[in-house]
Design a protein that fits this description.
The complex is a heterodimer of chains A (332) and B (622). Chain A has 332 residues and is mostly helical. In chain A, 78% of the residues lie in helices and 1% in strands. In chain A, a hairpin with a 4-residue loop joins strand 1 and strand 2. In chain A, helix 1 packs antiparallel against helix 14, helix 6 crosses helix 8 and helix 8 packs across helix 10. The relative contact order of chain A is 0.14. In chain B, strand 6 and strand 7 form a beta hairpin. Chain B starts with a helix and ends with a strand. The chains are: A mainly alpha (332), B alpha+beta (622). Chains A and B meet through helix 2, helix 3, strand 2, helix 5 and helix 7 of A and helix 18 of B.
Chain lengths: 332, 622
């Protein structure tokens, strides 16, 4: 097992290097650069542009250097913990992202919990009562949640929250509390504003989870050991939880890998609509304006978390399911 | 100062207010660390501006979308060395007065006892520091001295006569000087020297600078100086300012609090120091939901990020949200223009776009009445891209040039231009046999553009021209235009729709590669002939020549004459095809907020959006 972990950790390094190259290239694929975006914005608001000065701006940001040079500078700094500089915010990336990190984690935490709380009972119920009215009805609800565009749901719910409960539109707290130290009123305000995002982002994920849990559980429930257990008079609940449910959780453990980056990034599009002070909108805006170090470092951060997450879930799966441990080690 | 004085005299003084302030006691008891308004403040003429005396206190909230948007506080603040008044005439503002001789010699007089927001005196040292240690420092001004201060490439002779007097003298007239100082994005010719010296290699302790360079992660001291010294975008809460409100919040933040500048130089007629409002708070929000937030009363003063499409929604929430919605006409020469790219790489279409008759015909074929009725509820003006009626340069012939639909004349013009042949579909053909199909590329920013173009498509069918719309994206479009890859694109009309003769007529001449109707010719001018192509069309050369003349025009009359010649050529030649002008901008105002005019113009220049309506006189009636 230790050898396996060591081997997997070593494999992470080339994976991350490859990821960094891909990220850096893709960010720069669209024509133009941050300075172009900046000019466009000036023109749109009617300001005049002194193109001589613009060239110096490019020089200052190092945008006139060849791409491989920029890549090397960026990645060596990244490895040393310097994530570069955001053109848009005129602050170091770590500061810009760090500012929003804990609110993002808070939102993600609540939405993930909500997804589990809804999806687990429904998934188990659907599997054990396959093709019943309850199965169809709940699955329908779940699919409805998935099919409704999140941003639409977000807009409707924000409007309702404002009209009936007086919760201010968008954001994660009332404006008086921004940048204020934590206090009970502030905490209460955050909780109030968390309701809409949690429901909107949370419901989107439930349908998928319900279906996967249902399918996995159904596979298990039809196996002979379950039938034998039932025939031997094991109580139905125990016959469900003791082995079949545990076996069907493999997918759930495998999901942890993607969960880690999701906690940090939050739901991007919905967060824009809801005007959440999370990292998602930051990333989208950075990609749009080609704020390349902000976008690059953030994506790289997510890539690192994904790789670590996958490793963690693989190890967990190895402990959970001997089959994976053996075949995984042998084939790799 | 009257308009007349400017026109008649070559030597004149712009003096602030009607009379010098008599010396009544000021209401500046708050904050003993500050000394209050200057001994010689600018007494605002409330009668002329139709304002009432207000009460000090209170705070208002604005909504913005990006951290960069806090520069709007400098635009809204409106304090400039010289500033435009309600009739778009220049007045001394931060300056006590300015003496001008032939647009060549300018003597600036500062107010006695004027202090920066941090309580340090504002003197000619601040001008000297900028001129000698910033503008003429190669490390700080990599592009050289700002071009507004150059005449034929030559800088002025600057003298610092005493602590309150500075003079700038050029060999030839520089009419751009004052407008550059008064611009929405002003040319700063001063800087808080006492504060900035700590970042300047000439004055500061090298060890300290080295430490700062390290901790701020910049390359050199010059970056440091630049970062801490941004006056237009007030990100640095420690940087002293002369604006009515000073930033007190370190960026990045979602809520930027601007507090009263206790040393602001304007006072109301009773001697109460402005601004009336204690605080202006800028809340950052995603631009998509700003209209929704405004509709529930979460902003007290908003124009940015709300659009005419939002009007009905805003109106509906007005009572509950306790605000009113005004409609201010936009100050642009046209809401949308079609820009025929006369430097396109496509030879067939280049010839067509360069032909005056084609451009005139395309403009004549547009049914502006239908567009106005359908898209603008009949509230806009059906005009060419020109100056607006409230501009002193307005003439009906400019606005009306080729702006009334006449399909017969249009057809005749196109026939004459050599596009008489038609294909099976009834489309005209180019000499090379291709059908006359124009792809119009848009920046893809609003559905309004595409809606208008859809209507124009129908209108152009009548003259045998087919239009295809290709929505793109702002930066990509700009790149394609300057490479000559587009035949036609869309953008907004003239920014200076409210031009006065003193304003820069650069938008009418080929001076910059960002001008989509002649990017290559513009580049030629901008690069002083080292890049781009020389204009081939006679009228375009003439515009360039006229512009150069304006740059050294000595007086108002000369400037007026040049502006009018330029407008005449520009509209007669239809270098840009304007659709309609006077589109409306909804402005949301808290019901308790006083002194906001019912009628205004929404423009970056010369009204600085709200800036020219003096937000420092706005107050809350509670």
């Amino acid at each position: 097992m230790l050898r396996y972990i060591f081997y997997r950790t070593m494999v992470m390094i080339p994976t991350l290097i490859l990821a960094s190259i891909v990220i850096f290239t893709i960010i720069q694929l669209p024509p133009g650069d941050y300075v172009e975006t900046y000019i466009g914005e000036l023109l749109a608001s009617g300001e005049t542009v002194d193109l001589a000065r613009v060239e110096y701006l490019r020089e200052e940001y190092g945008l006139n250097k060849p791409m491989w040079q920029r890549y090397l500078i960026w990645i060596t700094n990244f490895a040393q913990g310097d994530f570069g500089y955001s053109f848009e915010f005129q602050r170091p990336v770590s500061e810009v992202v760090g500012n929003r990190l804990w609110l993002t984690m808070l939102v993600s935490f609540f939405t993930i919990i909500l997804t589990w709380v809804i999806a687990f009972p429904i998934g188990i119920y659907s599997a054990t009562h396959q093709y019943s009215w309850g199965d169809y009805g709940l699955t329908f609800l779940g699919l409805l949640g998935m099919a409704t565009p999140n941003f639409l749901l977000a807009l409707v719910m924000m409007y309702l929250a404002k009209t009936y409960f007086g919760v201010s539109i968008g954001g994660l707290m009332d404006k008086e509390f921004v940048d204020q130290p934590m206090s009970w009123p502030k905490f209460w305000s955050i909780m109030e504003h968390l309701i809409v995002p949690t429901i909107v982002i949370g419901t989107a994920g439930t349908a998928a989870m319900i279906r996967r849990l249902r399918a996995n559980l159904l596979d298990e429930l039809q196996k002979q050991y379950v039938i034998t257990a039932k025939a031997k008079g094991v109580r139905p609940f125990k016959a469900l939880v003791k082995y079949p449910l545990r076996m069907s959780l493999n997918f759930f453990v495998a999901d942890i890998g993607s969960l880690l980056p999701a906690i940090i990034s939050g739901a991007e599009i919905v967060a824009i609509v809801l005007s959440l002070q999370t990292t998602g909108p930051l990333l989208i805006a950075a990609l749009q304006s080609q704020d390349m170090y902000l976008a690059g470092s953030f994506l790289m951060f997510l890539a690192t978390l994904t790789v670590i997450g996958v490793l963690l879930s693989d190890i967990a799966l190895g402990f959970l399911d001997p089959r994976i441990r053996l075949s995984g080690g042998a084939s790799k | 100062m009257l308009n007349g004085t400017l026109k008649l005299k070559t030597a004149l003084s712009i003096v602030a207010g009607a009379a010098l302030w008599a010396g009544t006691a000021l209401n500046t008891s708050i904050g003993t660390a500050f000394a209050g308004a200057p001994e010689e403040p600018r007494v605002m003429d409330f009668a002329a501006a139709d304002k009432q005396i207000g009460k000090r206190g209170g705070q208002i909230n604005l909504l913005m979308a990006k951290p960069k948007d806090i520069r709007m506080m400098t635009v809204y603040g409106g304090a400039r060395l010289v500033a435009y008044d309600q009739t778009f005439q220049l007045q001394a503002d931060i300056l006590k007065k300015i003496d001008i001789e032939d647009n060549k010699d300018f003597t600036l007089h500062l107010r006695k006892g004027h202090l920066w927001s941090d309580g340090q005196p504002f003197t000619s040292e601040d001008f000297r520091y900028w001129w000698e240690d910033v503008a003429n420092n190669a490390a700080l001004m990599k592009g050289g001295i700002p071009r507004q201060l150059l005449v034929n490439g030559k800088p002025p002779k600057v003298e610092f006569i005493d602590s309150h007097t500075i003079s700038y003298a050029w060999d030839e007239p520089n009419p751009l000087f004052l407008t550059a100082l008064a611009a929405a994005r002003p040319t700063y010719i001063y800087m808080p020297a006492h504060y900035m010296k700590q970042f300047h290699e000439k004055y500061a302790d090298p060890a300290k600078i080295a430490a700062l360079v390290e901790s701020e992660r910049v390359q050199a001291w010059s970056n440091l100086h630049q970062r801490f010294g941004r006056q237009y975008r007030p990100e640095n809460p420690d940087l002293p300012t002369l604006q009515p409100w000073r930033n007190t919040t370190k960026m990045p933040s979602e809520r930027v609090i601007f507090k009263r500048n206790e040393n602001y130089h304007r006072v109301d007629p009773e001697g109460t120091q402005l601004p009336y409002l204690d605080e202006v708070i800028v809340n950052m929000s995603s631009s998509q939901i700003i209209a929704a937030k405004a509709g529930t009363g979460e902003t007290d003063l908003q124009g940015r990020y709300i659009r005419f499409d939002n009007y009905a929604f805003l109106k509906k929430g007005a009572e509950e949200g306790n605000y009113k919605v005004l409609l201010w006409p936009s100050g642009r020469g046209s809401e949308m223009v079609l820009l025929p790219n006369m430097n396109t790489k496509d030879e067939g279409f280049r010839a067509a776009m360069q032909d005056r008759r084609v451009r005139q015909a395309l403009s004549l074929a547009i049914d502006r009445t239908e567009i106005n009725e359908t898209i603008f509820f009949g509230l806009a003006r059906e005009t060419a891209n020109s100056v607006l009626p409230s501009s002193p340069l307005y003439k009906e012939e400019y606005a009306g040039a080729f702006a009334t639909r006449d399909v017969d004349v249009a057809n005749k013009l196109l026939d004459e231009a050599g596009y008489a042949n038609r294909n099976d579909e009834g489309l005209r053909t180019l000499p090379d046999g291709r059908p006359f199909q124009i792809i119009v590329e848009t920046a893809g920013e609003s559905s309004q553009e595409t809606d208008i173009l859809q209507l124009v498509t129908d209108h152009w069918k009548a003259i045998g021209v087919k239009l295809f719309v290709k929505p793109s994206q702002r930066d990509i479009l700009r790149g394609r235009v300057s490479n000559g890859e587009t035949v036609m694109s869309t953008w907004q009309g003239l920014n200076r729709g409210l031009a006065t003769p003193e304003m820069n007529p650069e938008e009418l001449a080929p001076v910059s590669p960002v001008q989509a109707q002649w990017p290559s010719w513009g580049l030629h001018f901008d690069s002083k002939g080292t890049a781009g192509e020389e204009p081939t069309l006679e009228p375009v050369k003439k515009l360039a020549g006229l512009y150069s003349n304006w740059r050294t025009a000595a007086n108002y009359d000369e400037q007026t004459k040049i502006w009018q010649d330029m407008l005449s050529i520009f509209t007669e030649e239809v270098f840009t095809i304007g659709i309609v002008s006077g589109g409306l901008q909804p402005v949301v105002i808290n019901n308790k907020l006083r002194n906001v005019p019912e009628e205004g113009v929404w423009a970056f220049e010369p009204t600085l959006y709200f800036g020219a309506y003096m937000p420092d006189t706005f107050w809350l009636d509670e």
